[in-house]
Amino acid sequence: MVLVGKGPWLDDDEQKAWRSYLLMHKTLETHMERHLQREYGLSKSDFEILVNLSESKTGRMRAFELGRATQWEKSRMSHHLARMEKRGLIQKVACDSRYPEIAITAEGMAAIEACAPAHAARIREFFVDVFGPDRLAVLGEVSDEIVDTIRKHEGNDCPPEVTGNC
Fold it and tell me: Any idea where the HTH marR-type domain is (predicted)?
């Protein structure tokens, strides 16, 4: 493990910033999920799958592609897709491959179209407008740098059981 900065422990300012970020992330995520659930009957997981399928050119993706896009484990994806299929939001469609494609149904498309405008408006109200354009641009840059740093770590010295590549 490489220790950068003052040592392994966060100083008071670093700890405060980290905990503020965690609280903001959890509060925002929980609030957004409650709106999705109570107003549209969708979990954030349903929403994530439906967004990915609705944004694909064909409205279909392979389960492993959805897993890559969502960073979910294979078993979680399988179980969640089964629940969504029972609710009529997605369907499995046979294709040339051994495994079926996952397709968004008309009901799934209607669900995402119904909730997306309100969801986007809340993101604007609680996130975009609070940051403003300049700070939002900085957040985007820093977020990309953090993801790149994690990807490098995963590619170099991160154990496979942590990266999910086992």
Answer: 35-135
Give Cα separations from 100 to 82, 118, 161 (angstroms).
13, 32, 27
H or E stretch covering 61: strand 60-62
Residue 160 has which token pair? 């496979």
Give the Cα separation of 6 and 20 in Å (integer): 20
Cα dihedral sign for 157, 162, 165, 166?
positive
Residue type, 14: E
Structure tokens at 94: 């046979």
Q: Looking at residue 162, what is its pLDDT?
A: 74
- Tokens coding 87: 């609710």
Token pair 């300049």 is found at 134
| 130: helix, strand or coil | helix
CATH class of 41-153: mainly alpha
Res. 166: pLDDT tops 90: no
* CA separation for the pair 141, 58 (Å, rounded): 31
- The model's pTM is 0.84
For range 67-85, the mean pLDDT: 94
Q: What are phi and psi of 71, to 5 degrees?
A: 65, 35
How many Cβ atoms sit within 10 Å of the Cβ of residue 104? 26
pLDDT at 99 (0 to 100): 82
